[in-house]
Amino acid sequence: xxxxxxxxxxxxxxxxxxxxxxxxxxxxxxxxxxxxxxxxxxxxxxxxxxxxxxxxxxxxxxxxxxxxxxxxxxxxxxxxxxxxxxxxxxxxxxxxxxxxxxxxx
Length: 105
Prior knowledge:
By secondary structure, the protein is an alpha+beta fold. The protein has helices spanning 14-20, 37-54, and strands spanning 3-12, 26-34, 62-71, 77-85, 92-100. The longest helix is centred in the middle third of the chain and has 18 residues, at 37-54. The two termini are 22 Å apart.
């Protein structure tokens, strides 16, 4: 059964950071419908990489962490599933970490 997820991707832009002198972690979120948190993260990462390719900038974006937040029907975020990349270009790995959420989106 599919459900709604908000996928958050945290990333850095190392080449830009070298030129600008700013060391920052950026975040972007994608809302997707998926059968599992892992599938949602894969879908979010696919969208992230597509957006990065289309952004027309010369520096690379490196994913530091991606996770899927389950969206309840009333849009309340109630569970967070954390994933960390296994390597620079590898698939996400389930950390086994689970957190409870009760904030409203």
